[in-house]
From TrEMBL:
<keyword id="KW-0238">DNA-binding</keyword>
<dbReference type="InterPro" id="IPR050204">
    <property type="entry name" value="AraC_XylS_family_regulators"/>
</dbReference>
<dbReference type="GO" id="GO:0043565">
    <property type="term" value="F:sequence-specific DNA binding"/>
</dbReference>
<dbReference type="InterPro" id="IPR009057">
    <property type="entry name" value="Homeodomain-like_sf"/>
</dbReference>
<dbReference type="InterPro" id="IPR035418">
    <property type="entry name" value="AraC-bd_2"/>
</dbReference>
<keyword id="KW-0805">Transcription regulation</keyword>
<dbReference type="Pfam" id="PF14525">
    <property type="entry name" value="AraC_binding_2"/>
</dbReference>
<keyword id="KW-0804">Transcription</keyword>
<dbReference type="InterPro" id="IPR020449">
    <property type="entry name" value="Tscrpt_reg_AraC-type_HTH"/>
</dbReference>
<dbReference type="InterPro" id="IPR018060">
    <property type="entry name" value="HTH_AraC"/>
</dbReference>
<feature type="domain" description="HTH araC/xylS-type">
    <location>
        <begin position="249"/>
        <end position="349"/>
    </location>
</feature>
<protein>
    <submittedName>
        <fullName>HTH-type transcriptional activator RhaS</fullName>
    </submittedName>
</protein>
<dbReference type="GO" id="GO:0003700">
    <property type="term" value="F:DNA-binding transcription factor activity"/>
</dbReference>
<dbReference type="Pfam" id="PF12833">
    <property type="entry name" value="HTH_18"/>
</dbReference>
């Protein structure tokens, strides 16, 4: 039996001390919807600590920031799932655990999504089998995997599981990991050095930030994405098989280390590596990028990270100039085009005591 999840309110922040339990087959779908709405009305604008769903009610919960799922329910053994959600700046992070479960994303679900997203999955217990376009990725404890919401897919958890899930708008993720969609299905193994380091970071994020709420998600989300980007870059370098792959990796590493240099231009980079500007641009174009666009995206991401840090005392102009921008007005316009708000509004929101966790 399949149920299509549709709980657009599920991402609304809840009260940390609140508890919510729904037992599926003892309630009708309309009763569950009414109960949820009453709960939301009573706890609006706070952050919830834990959600517990069983059986038929689970279909209500499988909707995170308008990412829709089709839940396969077993009448003989209704699944039981615990979810601890957090959100910050359009990014959702959830600690999820439960009984064996299978969820699907077909064309109907994809059509109902509000946007396209990159999913980060950190497996802490049990297994997840990710299937899309005939390809299988098995994710075992300690592994980290990426998936893209634009593909039809099946996620099977054949045994009791525990995982950390992050759902990030593609536009946001591309600021730290260009050509992000190409990493769909990438698995970073727990036994690899970079996998072990990233796993340690994500464990702390899940335990302290998501589950215990010792600090707001907003205070560490940009650093988390930077750590993830560095790990992906290291993983790609390990698996680079062609001269072009290796060249691209070297160029990106070189530019990343010099983002604060306003003279970092395609001409300067091409000269450093002894190639023509045309060849350098072609290498980037093959990956749906440009040299200037990549630098701009990384610089904006660095500025965004500092603007979200309430401890920073530098002015917006100082931050922009320190990361290679030379015109404050131009920077402000680019920032708003990329992130949807001006730098001053973004910084003010992150310094507010009521900023969402």
């Amino acid at each position: 039996m399949r149920r299509t999840g549709d709980l657009s309110e599920a991402h609304v922040p809840f009260s940390r001390d609140a508890r919510f339990s729904m037992v599926g087959r003892s309630s009708t779908r309309s009763q569950n919807r009414a109960t949820m709405n009453e709960f939301l009305d009573a706890t609006h604008a706070a952050t919830m600590h834990r959600l517990h769903y069983e059986g038929d009610a689970l279909h209500h919960a499988m909707h995170v920031d308008h990412v829709t799922w089709d839940v396969c329910l077993n009448d003989a053994a209704p699944p039981s799932v615990n979810v601890i959600p957090k959100c910050a700046g359009g990014i959702r992070a959830l600690s999820v655990s439960g009984a064996p479960l299978t969820v699907l994303r077909g064309q109907q679900q994809l059509n109902r999504d509000s946007d396209t997203f990159i999913g980060i999955l950190y497996q802490r217990a049990g297994r997840t089998i990710y299937e899309r376009n005939g390809h299988l990725t098995e994710i075992v404890p300690g592994d980290i995997a990426l998936w893209y919401s634009g593909y039809e897919a099946r996620f099977a958890m054949p045994e009791p599981f525990r995982k950390l899930c992050m759902v990030i708008p593609v536009q946001h993720f591309q600021q730290v990991v260009p050509n992000a969609i190409s990493y769909d299905g990438l698995r970073i193994e727990a036994r690899s050095p970079v996998g072990a380091l990233l796993g340690s970071w994500l464990t702390t994020l899940a335990d302290d930030v998501i589950e215990r709420g010792t600090e707001p998600l907003a205070s560490c989300i940009d650093t988390t994405l930077d750590v993830l980007a560095a790990t992906i870059a290291a993983r790609v370098r390990e698996t680079a098989t062609t001269p072009k792959d290796k060249f691209m990796s070297c160029v990106m590493r070189y530019m990343e280390q010099r983002l604060d240099d306003p003279e970092l231009t395609p001409v300067a980079v091409a000269s450093r590596f002894g190639v023509s500007v045309r060849y350098l641009q072609r290498i980037f174009n093959e990956r749906q990028m440009t040299v200037a666009g990549w630098c701009r995206a990384r610089r904006l991401a660095k500025c965004r990270a500092e603007l979200s840090d309430p401890r920073s005392r530098r002015t917006i102009t100082e931050i922009a100039f320190s990361w290679g921008f030379s015109d404050a007005t131009h920077f402000s316009r680019l920032f708003k085009e990329t992130f949807g708000v001006s730098p001053i509004v973004f910084r003010r929101a992150h310094r507010s005591p009521d900023h969402a966790q």
